[in-house]
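Case study 2.
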Amino acid sequence: MKKQLLLILLLAVYSNLSASVYTPDKLLYNGKEYSIIESKFLSHFFVNKADHTETTPDGEVIVSTGPRQGYIGTFQIENNELYVTAIQKYYMEDLQIKRENAYPSLFPNTTRTKAEWVSGLMLAGEVPEEGFKNGDSPKNYILLEIKDGIIIKEKKLNKKELNNFKKKQYQSFKNTEEYTTVFNQLKAHAPDYVSDKSIDETIKQFILKHSGRILAD
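Prediction:
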């Protein structure tokens, strides 16, 4: 019975940890705060696969941060350049969730670092002044095209405009060589029973991740 209770307690604590650190990376831009919703490269932090030790952006091992790693980053745009300014690390100790400032160990002797490893599309939702209530989603978004940490293009969109943009983006992307490359890569790693239509639907669903550039007006 004691073992069962301990197991239940451990599961509850670890579930709480996952829920607590499942927080989007933060973007500060033009005096506004955004929650980063989708970015192919941004939510990849510097954790070694083998021993979970941090490395620098120059390191070859980069894995996704998500709840299991417990890293949350704060990013800032200044003069069309993307910087990382803070990194919080969440971890479990004595059955309690703790956090620490991981930035100094990743980027010693700096207060901010240009995110030159970031390229692709980033979608971020504007955070209202009163914050999000449970179940709320952003009403306004910003879509950024980034190359080597430099902002190339940006679009401001509401929910309806974002949905329409994704449809147009998909149609534009489907006419490119990059679409064929992505399709073939997904097909090569998919089980035999996955149809071409399903692969195409996957690309459509995650069009911002796969397209990498703003193609539609």
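Residues 2-21 form the longest helix (20 residues).
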